[in-house]
């Protein structure tokens, strides 16, 4: 709550905020005022007359004196001298009355939902997570770089991508019209990036340690609680890194450090999520500081899944990707903790991952966490020219288009590796919120683009 | 330069990096090694034999002892015991030999140019500017929010926008093909955002003080030294703000604070730009800490321009936008300092700016800085329902589509204002680099989308 800094009570102060609730009593009235900057607002003590026009949602400027609270809920209250109504709020039509609202309903009024307890707490956790990651990378002497959103290359190969064009008017399916093509503006097809990794590798091949924080896009065709068409990622690339084990260590430290920062900075907000969303939240987050995350190879994971008594919809089988149900079993039930799955077969991973000596698996990992599944993915990158080129050919890439990427292996190539963290999924992880649509202010998914 | 932290010389250490230059002499050889994390690398002292395979661009791991330098250029040198070549670099074909390269040439090899002095210095300034802005907003208790990149609304109205679609294959202009339309994926036309402002206003109407840092897009049709199709902006929205003067004050403090942070953190890099790019750079940046930025109204600016003896291509005239030549005259010549131009006529500004009492001008500003022109634009936002609605109608907006925006004025409306800072232009400002294509690693503009 933004009040003039004062440690003494009895000081004459002014506050701004929105009325969250009002209790009009016979001799005295109470209003809870909040400006969104902290979980606890301030309780204002008013006369019945002063409280008359205050309804939930009204914005006000109050002048008065801070006094010691008699009740136990807050330390200080504002004994109001003067009320100025900034913006009225019609109680008859205001969509966010003080009562329980379902997440489904709140999503319908996403222009007002940051005023709810859950979404204002989320906004503060989001901000705190951002500073937590920033602090971590800066402390470790990484340079933040900007990789492009508009790109002519497709990092993952085979991801569903969005194409861009400059035509202002939408092309109607009924019209024979070529103005939807993007050759108008660029001299080639251009897409929204699915990952900044390849560009980040350019930067790491000069600057040693870099990270990005930006939006990426996948034209996912199904609606799930973990996928969005637009989401933010941290991607890191580290030159002179030779061991996958070191990359796991660093990734673990990154998650741990940021989570500790949030727990220390926003205990009231996190406790709110524990109370209302996920009773085991805090113990789960605090347990990150205990033992090292579990590590197992993909082969071991397949064996565990195969030997489990669990009936899966998809039978776990070497050479196939782990499905969501497999990931959840491993993290939620088998390990009950974050687990790194490493060394997947090359056949199910992208061309840029570094080949292991077995010629069959690649030096990569997925970090699975309880409730969420995959939170981070990373690998050593293939730094050997011939091996990389042969993987590109094997995966059907146009080698000429990626000559710039091969050049990084031609001129002073360095062993390196990196990872990408789904930032919005991380917010699910630290708040316990089930649906990724409820951690993002304006979620984008198939058929969904409000505002 | 990343070396094991040690203050004593004579310590046994290991360094990684790329060879920037080699001097082979009769008895002893020298190689300059840099890892991109700081301007100064380290000078390695080797035997002729050890230096044999080192060429510019080669990546190496060196082991040896730090010794006091005899020369004056650096304090310590590495007396090399052991050389390990990580990646060779063929001197015959390496595109980035140690010699002067033009910016035009370097743009052609943008996958290697972060290894050049200019572009590695730029990468460090970019990182430092990011932390400078972050520190400023966080210190002032702003919450960082994410506004969407994919959007169904067009903030500026009339900006040239990019439309998105999901078709994987580019639509050829010769084909009669409707697969370029974006109704495939979303249920309405969807564009790349030109500004996060309207969404940031949603957040500020609940959380009081918010800022964004993200990419925005304009399908600019001309190639200039100040425009890109994709660039990053900081946008801030501040609730309970009633005076334009306070917004100017805050904007000024934001620029000043970040610039001071850079000057203090990266003096060697900034001095490099002073030496090679812009001799007046440091004095210009340091002068920000002197007097308040100049303030004048648009009307005063038009009078100054009209009364100047300068022959402009476009005659300055009340009611028309200021052209680049006008902005440069005001900042570079008339004020020789940053200048806020305020209170433009409503006819040349967007619908959301707050009407002044004269009914003719709006409470807005552009901040013009020497060499660059417009760096920041901001305004108070119209918080009065009727006035806003009437401006929307006057500007031809579809009021129904913006009902959510009007709702913010219906339910607990608050006076507020905000601004947007072109981040890449700011980098031009603090480095003196003329062309915005040379401060962005992978610039996007009409016909330009490499990698």
From TrEMBL, chains A, B:
Recorded superkingdom: Eukaryota
Alphabetized UniProt keyword annotations: Aminoacyl-tRNA synthetase, ATP-binding, Ligase, Nucleotide-binding, Protein biosynthesis
Residues in Aminoacyl-transfer RNA synthetases class-II family profile domain copies: 133-443
Family: Belongs to the class-II aminoacyl-tRNA synthetase family.
Biological process, per Gene Ontology: asparaginyl-tRNA aminoacylation
Annotated protein name in UniProt: Asparagine--tRNA ligase, mitochondrial
Matching Gene3D superfamilies: Bira Bifunctional Protein, Domain 2, Nucleic acid-binding proteins
EC number of this enzyme: 6.1.1.22
Keyword Nucleus attributed: no
Any GO molecular function: ATP binding
Gene Ontology CC entries for this record: mitochondrion
